[in-house]
Amino acid sequence: MIASLKKNQKFAEYKRSLRFAFYCLTHPLDGFWDLTHEKRGSIAAANTILILTLLARLMRLQFTGFLFLRVYWPEVNILLQVGSVVFVLAIWCLGNWGLTTLFDGKGRLSQIYMATCYGMLPYPLIQFPLIILSNVVTADEAEFYSVLSGFSLLWAAVLIVVAMAQIHEYKMSKNLLFIVFTAFAMLVIVFILLLFFSMISQGVAYFISLVREMLFRI
Question: Does the global pTM surpass 0.90?
Answer without folding.
Answer: no
